[in-house]
TrEMBL record:
One GO location term (cellular component): cytosol
Family recorded in the similarity comment: Belongs to the glutamate 5-kinase family.
One example GO MF annotation: glutamate 5-kinase activity
Protein name: Glutamate 5-kinase
Binding site for substrate: 59, 144, 156
EC assignment: 2.7.2.11
Lineage top rank: taxon: Bacteria
Role: Catalyzes the transfer of a phosphate group to glutamate to form L-glutamate 5-phosphate.
InterPro entries per UniProt: AceGlu_kinase-like_sf, Asp/Glu/Uridylate_kinase, G5K_ProB, Glu/AcGlu_kinase, Glu_5kinase, Glu_5kinase/COase_Synthase, Glutamate_5-kinase_CS, PUA
Record GO biological process: L-proline biosynthetic process
Length: 378
């Protein structure tokens, strides 16, 4: 099956779609653009009427809030204040727009802590399942008003990728201000060309392909492709397309080839490994020797203490850590069976010597292969 056949097949068969829309699409110099909100709701309602479950990840609250106060809102407190002002207005606009079509919408505000805690993750999944079962359209945003820096997703592109896993979607559509993904930054290279597809996103050099960001958002094409790379590991495709194109969703689902289609990876990872790697943030790192790197990369082995050369960070057992080779390149991420202080004591030691060094040996492995994701997009 060629790329276009794959694209049309997914668009025809998709039963659950996550749509992410950025601030650069939804807002103008005066704040929230209600015309754009209404046009988006019109298209999403049409898809909804065809039986497609829709989950909307929407930016725009901060930008909407900033335009309603006279003073300048600076730093994280200012951003949180702007979000508090703008979030209710954003939801009110969506509620009114969807109500015209008899569609009920629901607001869901999340922080990273809601998804990295397994119990709360499962509770959120059940909430989404209940809403979608009642044919409600959940509208998701980061809870900017209360999220401290270490609990933030960073941007709604990252959040959208986590929502794809949470609701087990068939497709991610990322509506942005660009026509798609370019082979270079079009703001700096007048010869940059839009890509119709990306067949192997894991091999794409994101740093050189996209180094720009919009002025009103927190992301940029880099974050959109990082999000696409993550969901590709789940076996889910992404469409990056301009949300400024008129009737863009109608045209996409009618077969028009707009935007850039990012194909999924052939060998998908488990949803559990996805949750381990991306719902947490690494608290430290371990550097391993070449033998351990080969064992992990080429043979799918667990990481043993004997292969660890150094440990960085101050973390407890069960923390997510980066696994680095001797050059500092990241091999993957995984959950450490030991704290940083204990790993420093047993690094370079054989597994049978752990009890002699620590006085106990709860695990032979520093990081078990079942709790590890190679080539993680972090």
């Amino acid at each position: 099956m060629d790329v276009n056949e794959h694209r049309q097949s997914v668009l025809k068969s998709a039963r659950r779609v996550v749509v992410k829309v950025g601030s650069a699409v939804l807002t103008n110099s005066e704040g929230l653009d209600l015309r754009v909100v209404n046009r988006l709701a019109d298209q999403l309602a049409a898809l909804h009427d065809k039986g497609v479950d829709i989950v909307l990840v929407s930016s725009g609250a901060v930008a909407a809030g900033r335009g309603l106060v006279a003073g300048e809102l600076k730093g994280l407190p200012g951003r949180q204040a702007a979000s508090a002002i703008g979030q209710s207005r954003l939801m009110h606009a969506y509620d009114e727009a969807f109500e015209r079509y008899g569609v009920v919408s629901a607001q869901i505000l999340l922080t990273r802590d809601d998804l990295r805690n397994r119990t709360r993750f499962l509770n959120a999944r059940n909430t989404f399942a209940s809403l979608l079962g009642q044919r409600v359209i959940p509208i998701v945003n980061e809870n900017d008003t209360v999220a401290v820096q270490e609990l933030k997703f960073g941007d709604n592109d990252s959040l959208a990728s986590l929502v794809v896993n949470l609701v087990q979607a068939d497709l991610l559509i990322n509506l942005t201000s660009a026509a798609g993904v370019y082979d270079a930054n079009p703001d700096r290279d007048p010869h940059a060309k839009a890509l119709k597809s990306i067949e192997n996103i894991a091999c794409l050099d994101l740093d050189t392909t996209c180094d720009g960001k919009t002025t009103v958002g927190t992301g940029g094409m880099y974050s959109k492709l990082m999000s696409a790379r993550r969901v590709a590991q789940l076996g889910i495709p992404t469409l990056v397309v301009s949300g400024k194109e008129r009737f863009v969703l109608d045209r996409i689902f009618s077969g028009e080839e707009l935007g850039t289609w990012v194909l999924p990876e052939e060998h998908k990872i488990s949803r559990r490994k996805f949750w381990i790697a991306y719902n947490n943030t690494p608290d430290g790192s371990v550097t391993v020797d070449p033998g351990a790197a080969r064992a992990v990369l080429e043979h799918g082995k667990s990481l043993l203490p004997a292969g660890i050369r150094s440990v960085e960070g101050d973390f407890e057992s069960g923390a997510l850590v980066k696994i680095l080779d001797e050059s500092g390149d990241m091999i993957g991420v995984g959950l450490s069976n030991y704290s940083a202080s204990d790993l420093q004591k047993v690094q370079g030691h054989r597994s049978e010597d752990i009890s002699k060094v620590l006085g106990h040996c709860n695990y032979e492995e520093a990081i078990h292969r079942d709790n590890m994701l190679i080539d993680a997009a972090v």
